[in-house]
Write a structure and sequence with these properties.
Length: 328
């Protein structure tokens, strides 16, 4: 548990993961300020009870003061394809913005940080499950920008005594309360398959069915967004002055593309037409996390590990989100 009655700044707190973490902080009795420019987030996702400041990461300097106990940093662009086409956008926001955030934290004497990192920092590792000591070799400017920030945070800890934890996520899914996935464009498998169930998409593309996996389709590690949020609260307590901890977050098990599609069929009762398409360049057969370090360091264990439970929460959110968009 985090200490009682703390005050936290959540950058990117109108986004999917940031809003769920902000909600968990409020439920634990803390004070929360959300800083978000709403470029990819939604004002309605900011949980009730949080103060909201519309602005970019670079505006943290006008928000932070010594009354804040820590920053939880989610404000980043995260579309891999876009990062390849427009890398400067990712360097300017994800790296340059975080540099400004760290400077604002120094000036305000806010000395704890939990950073939303990513498994994309590992690129295409040759072994699985993936541990934190494997080489980092990102294959996109997005992954490279997140790795650059991890290096930046490590230097900040060593030079200025920052207490920081970077959490490298695998495939986040599910929903919590009024927060769920609604990316534009959507690129994640579970919400895409749910769009087929809703009639918003004719079929789901299966990119390659000849991988060396049990059913020939790619295997990925899915983690419920609420389990992810709980890890952030634990990380606030685990942070140590002058130390940069890095932890993977995942279930430690993988589900194939076909298992996800079958799970959506089971949860929704809808037929999900499939179209097999060629493999996408750079798609590894299997990406599964080792979360042993998170268990040891944070005392974290995911509790929502059943695929149908994760899909069920995402399905409820998807249905409610469509109803709201129609004014129902």
């Amino acid at each position: 548990m985090t200490d009682p009655a703390m005050k936290y700044l959540v950058t990117g707190g109108a986004g999917y993961v940031g809003s769920v973490v902000a909600a968990h902080l409020l439920e634990a009795g803390h004070r929360v300020t959300v800083l978000d420019d709403l470029s990819t987030g939604f004002r309605a996702a900011v949980p009730r009870g949080a103060d909201f400041v519309e602005g970019r990461i670079q505006d943290a300097a006008r928000v932070l003061d010594p009354s804040y106990d820590a920053v939880l940093h989610f404000a980043a662009y995260s579309q891999v394809g876009e990062s390849v086409a427009d890398p400067e956008k990712y360097w300017r926001n994800n790296v340059g913005g975080t540099m400004d955030l760290l400077a604002a934290m120094r000036d305000a004497n806010v000395r704890r940080l939990v950073f939303s990192s990513t498994a994309a920092t590992y690129g295409e590792p040759a072994v699985t499950p993936i541990t934190e000591d494997l080489p980092t070799a990102p294959t996109s400017p997005y992954g490279a920008s997140k790795l650059a920030v991890d290096h930046m945070i490590g230097g900040e800890c060593a030079a200025h005594g920052l207490a920081a934890v970077s959490l490298r996520y695998f495939n986040v899914a599910g929903a919590y309360g009024s927060s769920g996935e609604r990316h534009d464009p959507e690129s994640h498998l579970i919400p895409l398959v749910l769009q087929v169930a809703q009639g918003r998409r004719a079929s789901i593309s299966v990119y390659g069915d000849d991988y060396p996996t049990p059913d020939g389709t790619c295997v990925r590690d899915y983690i419920h967004v609420a389990d992810l949020a709980e890890a952030h609260l634990l990380a606030l307590t685990a942070a140590e002055a002058g130390v940069h901890h890095i932890c993977n977050l995942g279930n430690g098990e993988g589900f194939s593309v076909r298992e996800v599609i079958d799970g959506v069929r089971k949860v929704t009762g809808h037929e999900i037409p499939e179209v097999v398409a060629p493999r996408r360049p750079g798609d590894p057969a299997t990406l599964v996390a080792s979360a042993d370090r998170a268990r040891t360091l944070l005392g974290w264990r995911p509790s929502r590990t059943e695929l149908t439970d994760i899909i069920g929460d995402a399905w409820r959110f998807a249905q409610n989100n469509v109803a709201q968009s129609k004014g129902e």
